[in-house]
Amino acid sequence: MSDEIQSHDSSSTPARTEPVQDPGLQPHQWRPTDVDPAQERRAERQISGMFTVAALLFVLFAVSYFAIDSDQTFLNWSASNFALGATLGGGLLLIGVGIIQWAKKLMGDHEMVEMRHPARSSAEDREAVMADINAGLRESGVGRRPLIRNSLFLSVGALAVPSVVLLRDLGPLPHGQDETVWKKGMRVVNDVSGLPIRPEEIEVGQLINAEPAVFFPAEGEEEAEVHGHELLAAKSKAAIIVVRMRPEDITPSEGRENWGIDGILCYSKICTHVGCPISLWEQQTHHLLCPCHQSTFDLADNGKVIFGPAHRPLPQLPLGVDSEGYIIAMSDFPEIVAPSYPELARDQKRLDGES
Predict the structure, then answer these.
(1) pLDDT tens digit string along 184-210?
(2) Dihedral through CA 146, CA 152, CA 155, CA 158, nearest 10?
(3) Cα distance between residue 94 and residue 112, in whole Å
(4) Which spans are transmembrane here (predicted)?
């Protein structure tokens, strides 16, 4: 019985034939650029011109970014936004239109019929597809149309100019950003109350979030010279933590023996990994933990990294006491207060000062 069923199944399988002998395709219509060399060259110049103008618009984007002030207006619009949008949008539009015209006028233009097939193509079909792709590349004329090819590469390459300019808005460049507002003699104040701090007010094991007194001017004193977002940036970069440990638990490195006051040390609040604010204090181990990626610093050992992705010690601020008994900074931070940017600028400045 099984043999009969098998024989019946095999004999009932129809041979593969084309479902529609004539799908109704109209005769192929040749385009003007296919039969007229002059039309072909004209289309090539038009497409190349679009790509070239797109490259110029991308360069104008960068020029507009730096040349037009943000407060200038054009037809009651922001002149800067209008120029940036027009140049970037126009360049991208020209690249798109140029590619479409290239495909419609110069690339291969032959009707194709593809029958339905199983989800997985056979090896022969895959080889045929690759052959068609290679044939399409040859018919596109990339190899024999250097004018279009080179102008397209020029426009796409020029697109990197707006990209680099826009990346600049992500934040200030690290060069020249290695200083804070801390200066010799500037008082350390509580970042909430703005009150200066005396050494006797800090207990062993205590941590205080603090900042420079410049942000809390006393009555009659001048306010900070920076305002708005610049003031907020300066405050965040100058943020510090003040901790007190037993002096016998501290192991200062050479040259830092006098940076503390009877066990009171001061460090930057900015993690050296990616700049997260840090103040998770383990008073028994003298460890400071970053809440973002768990970098751990030993404040009893010069802010040394003992765990996590950070690879620079936490910057330390040298402290002193003024004539009225308040804690003051003895200088700015000797190290860069920032994520792990190169320290060449500060190192060079230090060398220049020593020389």
Answers:
(1) 999 999 988 889 999 999 999 999 999
(2) -70
(3) 29
(4) 47-68, 80-103
Q: Which residue has the tokens 């940076």?
A: 259
Q: Are 336 and 277 in contact (CB under 8 A)?
A: no
* CA distance readout (Å), 25 to 22, 30, 106, 125, 132: 8, 14, 22, 23, 20
Reported confidence tier of residue 224, pLDDT bands at 50, 70, 90:
low
- Classify the C-alpha dihedral 90-92-95-97 as positive or negative: negative
| 319 within 8 A of 329, measured Cβ to Cβ | yes
**Amino acid 352: pLDDT:** 46
Average pLDDT, the chain: 82
Q: Does domain 188-354 have CATH number 3.30.300.20?
A: no
> Cα–Cα–Cα angle for 312, 313, 319, nearest 5°?
140
Q: Given a cut of 50, is residue 349 above it in pLDDT?
A: no
Instruction: Please determine, for residue 19, whether its predicted confidence score (pLDDT) is greater than 80.
Output: no
Q: Which pLDDT tens digit goes with each residue over 295-310?
A: 999 999 999 999 988 8
- 288 pairs with which residues across the strands? 281, 297
Q: Are 254 and 302 in contact (CB under 8 A)?
A: no
Per domain, the residue ranges of the chain are 29-111+125-170, 188-354
Residue 334 per-residue DSSP state: S
Whole-model pTM: value is 0.51
